[in-house]
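[Meeting: bench + compute handoff]

Bench side (C.D.) handed over the final construct sequence. Compute side (W.E.) agreed to return the predicted structure before the next meeting so the bench team could plan truncations. Sequence as handed over:
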Amino acid sequence: MTQFVYPAMLTADEKDGGFVVTFRDLPEAITQGNSWEEALHEAADCLEEAIALRIDDKLEIPQPSQPKNQEYLVAVPAQTAIKAALYLAMREKGISKVQLASTLNIHEKEVRRILDPHHATKLSTMERTLGVLGQRIELQITAK
């Protein structure tokens, strides 16, 4: 099972005020906010962009580490998490975009859009694509 909820560290910015947010699993993901709430909101956006960049650059997406004391859990937005799962399933199975398009009987350009974290894709399309890759979505809702 793949999860996309990463531990984040909020550090008070003594010089400028507010909080700096870092993710030890994704060192390139750094952001800040003037308040604790704003910092956590910005953290979700930052995390989404870090995952999107890794998909675009064909890099690994690490599994989240176990949270340590003083860390907060930040979830990747649902659509980006599903697209990351698709990306990881394709890598694991060694399937190219062209091969996936052929299996789905669609054009390769559509597969590129399905994988594009910045493109809105219907949930049914992502579910079908995951199914072809031998995976399914299981939704879990938790309190903050």
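W.E. noted at the follow-up: The mean pLDDT is 93. C.D. will use this when planning the next construct.
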